[in-house]
Backbone:
């Protein structure tokens, strides 16, 4: 009997709490913040791919080219913490047309270039040293954390402005925020791979090969405001 009374009491308190919660007038709105900025850095992913019939010869040739590339990067005054090997592979590849095996060795290096004015000189030097693939070039800003903070603040301000628009015709005011959810999605560019011969031609390639434009940083939030 006591157990039944306890369960009933807990159930009554739960229902009462739920009803009390429902009685709090509130509004849930979304907000977006955007900041555009000219990038001042680039994250560059480059690779050396070597093919041949003997695994040891292919690996040796690939290592030799990569050794020259890394020495060039170091000589280009790129800080050691700004470049790193991302992937090393050696795989058999069967040519069904010729009915024989060959091997493909690949090494990929990620480079953070902090001065975009050096892009052309760096890339042309890397090509001369043996890279034959650009996997990706992603533009960045050195002030990314500050800019992301700015976009979050703008997103919350946008949410509050929307809430005030909604309730302005109801004779109510927007009160304190009781819940804020960050709905920002991180955009990761897909790798773009193409042969270096198509990208660089020693006789015809212009010295300026980048149109950096602007990068857009966004933040999205949902905010639940109490109505007064």
Residues:
């Amino acid at each position: 009997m006591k157990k039944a009374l306890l369960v009933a009491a807990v159930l009554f308190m739960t229902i009462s709490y739920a009803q009390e919660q429902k009685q709090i007038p509130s509004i849930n709105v979304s907000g977006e913040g955007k900041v555009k900025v000219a990038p001042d850095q680039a994250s560059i992913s480059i690779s050396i791919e070597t093919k041949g019939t003997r695994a040891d010869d292919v690996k040796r040739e690939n290592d030799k080219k990569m050794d020259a590339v890394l020495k060039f990067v170091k000589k280009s005054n790129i800080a050691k913490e700004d470049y790193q090997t991302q992937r090393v592979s050696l795989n058999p590849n069967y040519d069904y047309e010729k009915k024989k095996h060959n091997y493909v060795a690949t090494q990929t290096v990620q480079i953070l270039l902090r001065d975009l004015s050096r892009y052309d000189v760096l890339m042309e030097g890397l090509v001369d040293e043996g890279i034959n693939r650009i996997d990706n070039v992603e533009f960045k800003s050195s002030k990314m954390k500050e800019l992301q903070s700015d976009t979050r603040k703008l997103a919350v301000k946008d949410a509050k402005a929307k809430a005030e628009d909604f309730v302005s015709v109801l004779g109510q005011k927007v009160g304190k925020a009781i819940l804020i959810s960050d709905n920002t999605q991180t955009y990761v560019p897909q790798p773009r791979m193409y042969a270096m011969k198509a990208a660089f031609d020693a006789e015809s390639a212009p010295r300026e090969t980048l149109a950096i434009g602007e990068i857009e940083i966004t933040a999205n939030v949902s905010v639940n405001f109490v109505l007064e």
About this structure: The two ends are 44 Å apart (CA to CA). The longest helix spans residues 144-167.
